[in-house]
Amino acid sequence: MYRLLIIDDEDVIVDGMADLFQEQVDMELEVYRAYNVLEAIDWLKQTKIDIVLSDIQMPGITGLQLQQRIMELWPRCKVIFLTGYNEFTFIHEAMRNGSFDFVLKTETDETIIGSVKKAIAKLDEEMVMHSTLQKTTLLLQRALPYIQKDYLRDILQGESYALGNRHSQFTQLSISLDPSKPVLLVVGRVDEWREGLSTFDRALIIYAVQNISEELLGVSTRVAFTDYERFRMVWLIQPKSDAEDSWDQILRFVQGTLEQIQHTSRQLLKIKLSIIVCSKPCGWEELPIRYITIKRLFGYGLGLGQELLLTDQAYGTDHDRFEPVKSPLQTHLWIDLKNDLEAGRREAFLAAFDGITALLAAQDEQTEKARTEWYYMLVVIYISILNYNSVLRLAAEQMDLDKLTMMQAHKTWSSAFDYLRELAELIFNHRSEGQTNSENDVITKIKKYIHEYVNGDLSLTRLSDFVSLNPSYLSRLYKHHTGESVTETIKQVRLQKSKELLRNPDIRMSDISERVGFLSERSFYRFFKSITKLTPQEYRELQK
Fold it and tell me: What gap in Å lies between CA 337 and CA 348, rounded to an integer?
């Protein structure tokens, strides 16, 4: 989905264009309206805008001056100017400054739609150009990136040498971040891999993700990247600008750009990424605690199971309540099992559980030692989950948790592992129910908000701010659970409200139009007739 911002000082042009593009079912566009340049700049600061359709001459700030501001905020945005016949000097300057296209105001709707379609095609093309696996192959041949990543992992693990020697280490390792300023943490994971990929193939894809993200984020930020725990990843980000308000814009920029990184990874690399972003920057000493917190949130988040795109604000996270914890079992098996249990991957966890337990069925002294090690490895994983999640109370009600840390409390080793398997099932069931409840709460809040504020701002950006989710992710989550888009729900609520008001002959059309969220009667008439095939007045007459 791309975002289109329409700007003109004539309301009728803005509303007409907005209605035109909202009626294009073959174009996935979220349309925003601005009736002057200041409103346009407000929108540009609030959310990532992909395409701007703007008058070239407006009172106050001209379209050309606005173009410069757009390029500062969203360098990849495509600007299309609407112009008159006598403005070719402006056209020449606009094209020289990087505008995408211009359209004469006398052109047909089809011409304007065609220009926006060309802009969409160009945006798609640029995403292809931003990622080549040839670049990542060269990166694999260099030693410095490996050393940088090892050092950044040590920082995330809270190693004192890494945190204490930041200034000298950053210089020696050519890390572009400022060791004395706050940093924004972003954590990601690959949700699933295509079958048949080798370890080298997977490493190559991770480097491709790194290359894509550094190119896209690097326009306005300084960024460092590392991976961890078998192909999960971390971005550390700072603004390039030292302005006081730079962090506010960077947070918007990062969230908007991560949408594009997800989309590009899905289209080009054939992988699905889930990403969680800290809602605010933090100091370097606080970073290890934030890192542990975000990793845990992957296992308890809202979502479709894949392609999460969230901020920790969506969980009401209190970072201060967590302390860094180092596991004594740093093995791939331990990590994989823990991740599967946290993420709710029931089949993968139980397949490994049953497979290893079956291998330990032999009765000899060596196997007995291995069974004990396997049992207590699982105990460590379970405790890390139970201590964090509300499943502890439920588990205590349904099972004897005193047996958890005492293998000898079970009559046989078989009954011991049956106990652990039952506890795993309980954790998976609780997580599934909790996730569904959390998602249903979000959908309920959105529907209630739409009904209460049908005459207000119901843009995806406003709704996503209300529930602290990324706009693109909210759109997918809503459709997954309701079977319809947010836009379709808004249309139905507005239609229902319109019909209720039209049944009262004492309410003027202009008042009805305003009370259901339209800025002009003309837009209201077009909306109502496009759905009912009747004008509002004809519908009112039929109710008598």
Answer: 8
